[in-house]
Amino acid sequence: MEAERLLQQDNRTDLYVSQAAFWKWRSISQLTAIGACYADLDYHNVARWRAKAPRDVAGAVLGYLEEAMIPHPSYILSTGRGLVCVWLSELLPRTALPRWNAVQKRLGLILEPFGADKRALDAARVFRLAGSENSSADRDRCKVGMVWCHGAPDTPTRHDFGTLADEVLPVTHAELISLRAERAKRKAEGKDKTRPVLTLSGATYWESVLSDLQRLRAHRCPEGSLPEGQRDSWLFIAGVAISWISPAEVLGREIMSLAREAAGWRDSETKSRMSAIIKRARQAADGQKLDFGGREVDCRYRMKANTIVEWLSIDPAEQRAAGLRVLVDEDRKRERSVERTEKSRRERGVKDRTGQQTARLEMGGMALYLQATKGMRRDDLAAHFGVSAGQISKAMSEARQARQRQAKS
Questions:
Q1: Burial class (CB in 10 A: 0-12, 13-18, 19+), 105
Q2: Stretch 35-52: mean pLDDT, rounded?
Q3: Torsion-angle region of 349 (φ positive above 0: left; ψ -120 to 50: alpha; else: beta)
Q4: 335: exposed, middle or buried (C-beta count within 10 Å: 0-12, 13-18, 19+)?
Q5: What is the CA radius of gyration of the chain?
Q6: Using CA atoms, how far apart are residues 134 and 142, in angstroms rounded to an integer?
Q7: pTM of the predicted structure, to 2 decimals
Q8: d(C-alpha 131, C-alpha 6), whole Å
Q9: What residues form DSSP beta bridges with 156?
Q10: Superkingdom, according to UniProt (predicted)?
Q11: Hey, which of 321, 355, 392, 398 has its CA 20 to 30 A from 370?
């Protein structure tokens, strides 16, 4: 492994590793998978814990988590000046990022008494490699190493992310589904007069938008960099999308990374062009709201899918060729709906229309034969084939018409 190779070299100072995988660059827009939740505890900034030994602080953290009814981490690392708590999980796709972010935010809030760093909650964060050395730490604490482990040190316990999220978040996924179902029922009965608030729906939408933007860029510009005339709109929309799925503390870094990759912009140019997006994201993080139509809404920019399609001039052919899922027109939405329905039917073993018609003709022909040779009535035939009386009548009628057409030809 690369980590083992780095630790075998003479200079093992300030080596870092990420808990996630990326396509090209280490940025949220390039995230392909993430396999852990974590919390970076700068306990040296908290007077109560500053003079304590790492193992003592780790023990206090474990006790605090037990009281909060939060699962123990897979392991805890001493980083020289603090601790990193890591909850390993299965590899998650980027589509899980909204819920993963919610878990991260909750863990940071719970461990705030231990100096949890709110700037170290994003998916692109790196931490010191176990076995390396921290040049900023005191000599007797500069070695980065494990101070507690749940399970064997070489195979720490790995959590199921769905279960972990249900135990960490105030409202579990199952409860959220139940609440939505109950709200839908009340709405159908005309009893729900409030506008539904769906946790994570905005983040999920914008993650899908960002994925579509990346697909569109790959389709239009296989070489990677956007041409002049397409950069401003694409990057503005991408920046808005990232503002909904990335912590405000690292938003500027994420947007600058994407702008360098997609447009070759200098950081100063990106800051100038994207300052409004970053400002609004910070205001939203501080709890500020905007008045919109007499109600308070999130400060961050928002755009409907059809508006983005118009801004970027995405024609129907591109929507299909690039495999876009959200940034599509109404015709493509209907096509995708039909495709999803047909796929669902195939997965459930339901035949397509041609297959259904063929099967019905076969059943109708057999029913006509049984009627002619054994005198079976309609209800008897329906019971024999395990269908309704109406279905057997339709099958026999179609089989009779097919025979008549054959006789004429």
A1: middle
A2: 93
A3: left
A4: middle
A5: 29
A6: 5
A7: 0.60
A8: 10
A9: 151
A10: Bacteria
A11: 355
- The tokens describing 68, both together, are 């909060």
Higher pLDDT, 273 or 196: 273
What are 376's two structure tokens?
Answer: 């079976």
pLDDT of residue 172: 58
Q: For residue 130, what is the enclosing H or E element? A: none
What pLDDT is stored for residue 346 in this prediction? 65
The pLDDT score that the predictor gives to residue 174 is 61
Spell out the SS3 assignment of 183-234: HHHHHHCCCCCCCCCCCCHHHHHHHHHHHHHHHHHHHHCCCCCCCCCCHHHH
Token digits for 192?
Answer: 């729900």
Q: Say how many Å lie between the first and final Cα of the chain, rounded.
A: 73
Is 221's pLDDT higher than 50?
Answer: yes
In degrees and rounded to multiples of 5, residue 392 shows phi and psi of -70, -35
196-204: which pairs have CB atoms within 8 A and are 24 or more residues apart?
Answer: 199/102, 199/171, 200/98, 200/99, 200/102, 202/244, 202/298, 202/302, 203/97, 203/98, 203/101, 203/244, 203/245, 204/95, 204/98
Q: pLDDT tens digits, residue range 150-192?
A: 989 889 999 999 999 988 987 655 655 555 555 555 555 555 5
Name the one residue in this structure whose structure tokens are 């062009």: 273
Using an 8 Å Cβ cutoff, are 240 and 303 in contact? yes
Element (H, E) at 94: none
Mean of the per-residue pLDDT values for the chain? Answer: 84
